[in-house]
Amino acid sequence: MQTSSDRHEYPAHWEADVVLRDGGTARIRPITVDDAERLVSFYEQVSDESKYYRFFAPYPRLSAKDVHRFTHHDFVDRVGLAATIGGEFIATVRYDRIGPGGTPAAAPADEAEVAFLVQDAHQGRGVASALLEHIAAVARERGIRRFAAEVLPANTKMIKVFMDAGYTQKRSFEDGVVRLEFGLEPTDRSLAVQYAREHRAEARSVQRLLQPGSVAVVGTGRAPGGVGRSILGNVRDAGYTGRLYAVNRAFPEDQKELDGVPACRSVRDIDGSVDLAVVTVPAAHVPDVVAECGEHGVQGLVVISAGYADSGPEGRERQRALVRQARSYGMRIIGPNAFGIINTSPDVRLNASLAPEMPRPGRIGLFAQSGAIGIALLSRLHRRGGGVTGHTGVSTFVSSGNRADVSGNDVLQYWYDDPDTDVALMYLESIGNPRKFTRLARRTAAAKPLVVVQGARHGGVAPQGHAVRATRLPHATVSALLRQAGVIRVDTITELVDAGLLLARQPLPAGPRVAVLGNSESLGLLTYDACLSEGLRPQPPLDLTTAASADDFHAALSRALADDTCDAVVVTAIPTVGEGAAGDAALAEALRSAAAAVPTKPVLVVHVELGGLAEALSAAASTAPQAAPDRAEDAGSAAPAEQPPVVRAPAGTHLIPAYPAAERAARALGEAVAYARWRREAADPGKVPEYEDIDEKGAAEQIAGHLARGQGLTLGTRETCELLATYGLHVHRALPAPTPEDAAAAARTLGYPVALKATAPHLRHRADLGGVRLDLADEEQLRRAYAELTELFGQPAELRPVVQGMAPRGVDTVVRAVIDPAAGAVLSFGLAGAATQLLGDMAHRLIPVTDRDATALVRSIRTAPLLFGWRGSAPVDSAALEELLLRVSRLVDDHPEVVAVTLEPVVVAPHGLSVLGASVRLAPPPARDDLGPRTLPAY
Q1: Among residues 220, 222, 571, 613, which one has the least CA distance to residue 389?
Q2: What is the dihedral of CA 252, 255, 259, 265, to 10 degrees?
Q3: For every residue of 256-322, which 3-state class applies, written as one string?
Q4: pLDDT digits (tens, 9 = 90+) for 749-773
Q5: Cα gap 512→680, rounded to integer Å
Q6: pLDDT digits over 808-823, tens only?
Q7: Max alpha carbon distance in the chain (Å)?
Q8: pTM confidence score
Q9: Is the peptide bond before 821 cis (omega within 30 degrees of 0)?
Q10: CA pseudo-torsion sign 795, 797, 803, 808
Q11: Burial of 453: CB neighbours in 10 Å, binned 0-12, 13-18, 19+
């Protein structure tokens, strides 16, 4: 049991699970007085050479004094951390605070000496790098700003750990020892190093699950049927290339095989290593199975068993215990309550899922948090359900179930490097770490399309089995932020598959210009209208008439693709009476050959009841790896009416996607156009400008002074104006007017003309209710307006009237910034009034905002034309507006204590702008898990 030591309580928040370089896990925690025996046992397993590198002399064993020193810490000036697997130490790190002469010291000394020791069997797994990240975070928390380390020149591995960390360093050599000194504040390089290590480790951890050399299915029933027996059969029938074992403690002792698969009563009885265990036993027996797997060295688990967080509070505690137990052995988990995993690579051929058939091999990666949705996705891609025709296969499939450990973030890390995956499709019911997901999505989308549909959008809560941090952001805002990161956000499973098929089969369009051609004028017009609705720029449809032959289609498509004013082509087709399958095949070949001549432009087909054409298109142009002949026959038998013979296409050809409705094709093409535009813009994301008049230090002093009065507060008008002014944000002066005489005095101070406004919460920003009087030219008009307001709305104490000088006329806008505990800091912009309040016409960007972001933000609202000369009005000063957005972004990014800013209204005139109202809320910033050391979600 953990106990407290000399000066501070045991810091439980320092405990963390981490993924190591090879994909295994370890637990990092503070060393306490209870760890004496573990420390001695650990030290005995360290080689003499490693001991020499640590102590600079032969040091065969630890003395009692050493053990006391290394296990007694005050958790402030002396801290030790251990990396453990199975409860036993595999590495340690400690720091001791030192003064200027290198002697022991206490705060406020801000330097510490750090030293590591890693068990030889675990060197090369990235344990020291992970420990350095965590001990540095602990040191920063305790007021230490620099580390010093003395290393023997021959200890090149440890020198590399320090040198590769990315911190600002100073290196010296004296008396045969290398001395390294480095600051602990995160730098761009240290964060880049950390993210790169995180990527390698998490990708490798998923790779170990999806590419196992051996699999044990635990819980295979003795009688046919049941989950375990079904999965065993699915793994075997898919042609899994590794070793497969059936495990059930109820097997007779003399039973050696089951369905041709070696059978064992326990994982411990398997002669040889096991990389992956698929667990199908009841939840009550899972802990025993996990212990057996951990002791046998199993690398990962897929837990199909239900009865965890999906079943209520008791199940949630059972799930937490499951994750803790698995991680203690260095194993990662998919599930529990998972549907399973699939890898169609010919080198693996793993179907460790409840899907009875192996999907066709292909280039699409699938991730689903729901088993039912996973079935639907596999079915639509495998059997072309829902009218989406053609054969496009799957590279890998992961159903995470309750997502207790391995999540969509981990799978994204794997797909980013996976050469077999060109397009990623994800069904998400919750996003456990939106900051990290956005970061990973942006990187993935820059290399390959990522299409996401989010379930449970309007329920306000995550599914019962998911333990995730809540976000206060509306779904529309989250969707906008995902799109900013390059995610193709769709609303339905049908749209997910439609977009995925196009992106997997065709090149990205260079622009929105679309040629429409076909043998039906009506279908062409429908397609034209659908393209317009999706923001595309279609050309007038070319009607080839119903008498068009395959050669006519070929010629028309060739001309359209050769046209420099065309970026994509949609071919519409209706059945030709009497031609049947032969006509379909001829038309498919005509379209394929024309498209192959110009492989840089996408081609889509909209068909009406043309199953034969759709299948012919698929057969003529499939470039996906094909199943082995015997497996292809098995797959085809599942739906004989829909599975044509597989014909291998010429190398380099594209498969042409066909859609049963014009709007579905147009929507998929619209998403592809938007994604291609994002890819082009992402190559130059812009920069965060520097402004010489920003007083960052002055703002920090003001914020510290305000927070000294309370943990969370909304600033008054004067304090708000003073804080905003430090960032060059100037609020138009307004003076309180509790009486008509005060109003007249305020007007004389400000100068006529003036505005009289009620600032009561129910009237603020509601000019439509009559609480604002503008262009008051003299005292008589002011007093008359004052009387009208009090007569309409009540006494001045209720109205809270103010007098404000008139600003130049322009367009009223609103700017907001908020720090969401899950998603991070978000900047929002829209027009003030009904456009924002009624229509929700707001645009959003993650902070920090670049100059390109600010430009796009202003132009991405639906009512943006009002800012740029709509119907003959004068265009506003968009440059001044963009600068305002950038300054607000800088304020919130520089000072996370500014948790909310609202500027409303901001009147943007043809020259300049005026901020007429502002509010600022301060609070201690939410904890950021993206700047700290690498860690898995806590359980």
Answers
A1: 613
A2: 60
A3: CEECCEEEECCHHHCCCCCCEEEECCCHHHHHHHHHHHHHHCCCEEEECCCCCHHHCHHHHHHHHHH
A4: 999 999 998 888 777 766 667 788 8
A5: 14
A6: 999 999 999 998 877 7
A7: 107
A8: 0.85
A9: no
A10: negative
A11: buried
